[in-house]
Amino acid sequence: MADVGEVLMSVLSTIRVPKPGDRVHKDECALSFSSPESEGGLYVCMNSFLGFGSQYVDRHHARSGQRAYFHITRTRKAKKEDDNNSGSGHPPKKKPTRLAIGIEGGFDVEQEQYEEDVKVIILPDRQEVTSEDLATMPDVVRERVSLSMAGIMAADSVSHTLQVQQWDGEVRQESRHAADLKQLDNGVKIPPSGWRCEVCDLQENIWMNLTDGKVLCGRRYFDGSGGNNHALLHFQETGYPLAVKLGTITPDGADVYSYDEDDMVLDSKLPEHLSHFGIDMMTMEKTERTMTELEIAVNQRVGEWEVIQESGTTLRPMFGPGLTGMKNLGNSCYLNSVMQVLFTVPDFQSKYVSNIDKIIDEAPSDPTQDFKTQVAKLGYGLLSGEYSKPAPDPGDENGASEPRGDQIGIAPRMFKALVGRGHPEFSTNRQQDAQEFLLHFINMVERNCRSGVNPSEAFRFLVEERIVCQQSQKAKYTQRVDYIVQLPVPMDQATNTEEIHEAERRREEGDSSAPTVRAQIPFTACMAALSEPEILTDFWSSAVQTKTTATKTTRFASFPDHLVIQIKKFTFGLDWVPKKLDVSIDVPDTLDLSALLATGQQPGEELLPEVAPPPLMTPDVEVKGILGSHGNEEDDSLYSPLLSPVLDESTVLQLCEMGFPLEACRKAVYYTGNTGIDAAMNWIMSHMDDPDFSAPLVLPGCSSGAGTTPTESLSEEHLATIVSMGFSRDQATKALRATSNVLDRAVDWIFSHLDDLESMDVSEGGRSAAESEGGRDPPPGPRVRDGPGKYELFAFISHMGTSTMCGHYVCHIKKDQQWVIFNDQKVCASEKPPKDLGYLYFYRRVAE
């Protein structure tokens, strides 16, 4: 064997010293979840700084030719007993006093103590070089290798920079109303204690408006506790923006809330504003918990097993393949829950896990940035069972204690960073909506599966919408693709209305012992609300050439292999403030949707003519000058694509008054066909992240002039994405040209123009149908699977908290007829799965 010094000299040119900006993966393998704590440690390539576990380092060496690796192994130090321990073997934890992570007074981020051993390994013979060995080597070798080793050790690992180390939820901004707040000279003076709501006499959660001194109760929380919303209602009536929570005032400050800014704020003139109503801030004492303390209490409870719906039950930890926990990376429970469920679906298992060796063999030089590789890595980590082992108990050096619920599990840092990259929400460490993440991930799968098997087809189905003009009784049929059924919650159908009203009455009377009563909603009532016809009051009928009333009925045009149902618990109040419905729904284990199968055009039924609404002429436009060669003044069947469509101006105005951009409001009304404020609002909420959200409205079908997109400038990526969904390239081209090359809008457009596409012979700038392969284009529409509409429940995701932007997610999955609860790193057999309190339900087709 060659001398190690000579070997190092021969590879010296490949050894780099990390520079600022280099990504150093020294905590996690690029292809697995091996780490320096794993058996065999972690090998960091001293050229690319990619990390590899012992099972993959030889493969990387063979592919890249790199020979020098920085080897890191860590072993956990035994923790010393604290003199003030509680007798349980664990030192007492400091109680958090600040809504923060990783800073003084915040939630403690436990840092394990390790002993670290590092050296250089030269492949393929695995020759070892320690720091002591370097001292005897030539200066040029010693200097380069020592600098590289020191640089790798000193560099922040990629996982470290992605992880939440410090987060401060108490950083508040100065209210824009504070400096010039108007205060009424109405003679109101507030006593230093004994406050009651002026409307309902509640004595807790009391707020004083800083403009007029009104003393009123705060918001009602999702569980029915809190106040009765009287302070909020007062703001809605008066517009007076700032309120202070009485009982939190001390010489150091107080809780101040801005209803207009919808957030806790700072008021630099608070002493002056309080003294206006006779309150001396310097003499006040705290008598109530601040909003921060209340949130801390909630966050502490969220981490306890009792709150995860199965309180009072000792849950049996489970380990093995398919029973692997996932570490919470700081509000990543939404991602953990969704991915646990997806990898119980056979399509995702076969696409990514069964082919993992092939995927890794074909991975690019930097697999940390490859979608397919990272999804396969996550899927294998969850299903293999390699990481489904009990987490070591710091107080149990001999491993003699019973296994705890916590696992070693996996930390999906690379995966989260990759799927969230560039996204305004999923790239952050804030809590997110699990349903939105599910759709975001499915969209990424669609884009990355342009050829070959596409696992998201398991959820894809077609929806048929039938609109009937009530004046002409003629119908219009459209189809669209969807992945989730959104089930409405008809609160008026609650079976325990009397109990709810009685509890509300007692709370309004100030009875603090009034129980919290959850509304019981029959699942059949939710399904009836989904299937009942919707009344459209401002429908433009091409049959009668005017606005009239129509009914819209929605049915399944196909049934997917796996059905996702979202309970629409999160809604908007009359003031457009998000709120969560606290409901219990008797969701069944089996489901038969056969009665909701679409029937298509009925015998003898007439269809609405395919005629566009007439153009709306603006006062400063001359018809003659615009029509030009497109038509003439006497022929109104031809009109310029530059003209604006008829838009319901009252709906546009309402949306503008809510603060949305004018052009976005115009597009919302246009793309929902003037069907009213609710439909337009839903369009806005689902398109707010579009890059062209505020861009001017571009009419579909424009063949020239402004708003058109030449074929040459169309995005090949967008074309490939639409083609992968089952459409021809000609059809994809037409859709993108009609929507200014915006992918999301093109997909919406193509599904609303399926009838046009069926009769499409020649695309603009494309081949004719006769010239295409085999002389036939594939039929328009996405590739959808179809079958019987009978299903069985196999998983559900539950949410706790006041909104999708806070709280906690867990999921329950049925494994071999046993319900299992996945709560981040805890995986246990479920004794009482709370099927009535779920948010997302996952069904699979039952074979006939």
UniProtKB/TrEMBL annotation:
Statement: the UniProt record of this protein carries the keyword Transport: no
Binding site for substrate: 207, 219-222, 257, 259, 262
Catalytic residue positions: 333 (nucleophile), 808 (proton acceptor)
All residue ranges annotated as the UBA domain in the record: 646-687, 713-753
Ranges of compositional bias, category Low complexity: 763-772
Binding site for Zn(2+): 197, 200, 217, 230
MF GO annotations: cysteine-type deubiquitinase activity; zinc ion binding
Top-level enzyme category: hydrolase
Domain USP span(s) in chain numbering: 324-846
Catalytic activity of the protein: Thiol-dependent hydrolysis of ester, thioester, amide, peptide and isopeptide bonds formed by the C-terminal Gly of ubiquitin (a 76-residue protein attached to proteins as an intracellular targeting signal)
Record has NAD as a keyword: no
Region (Disordered): 75-98, 386-407, 496-515, 762-785
Biased composition (Basic and acidic residues): 498-510
Keyword vocabulary terms for this entry: Hydrolase, Metal-binding, Protease, Repeat, Thiol protease, Ubl conjugation pathway, Zinc, Zinc-finger
EC annotation from Swiss-Prot or TrEMBL: 3.4.19.12
InterPro entries assigned: Papain-like_cys_pep_sf, Peptidase_C19_UCH, Ub_carboxyl-term_hydrolase, UBA, UBA-like_sf, Ubiquitinyl_hydrolase, UBP13_Znf-UBP_var, USP
UBP-type domain ranges (all copies): 173-281
Ranges in coiled-coil conformation: none
One example of a Gene Ontology biological process annotation: protein deubiquitination
Gene3D superfamilies in alphabetical order: Cysteine proteinases, DNA helicase RuvA subunit, C-terminal domain, Zinc/RING finger domain, C3HC4 (zinc finger)
Record's signal peptide: none
CDD domains tied to this protein: Peptidase_C19B, UBA1_UBP5_like, UBA2_UBP5
Sequence similarity: Belongs to the peptidase C19 family.
Protein name: Ubiquitin carboxyl-terminal hydrolase
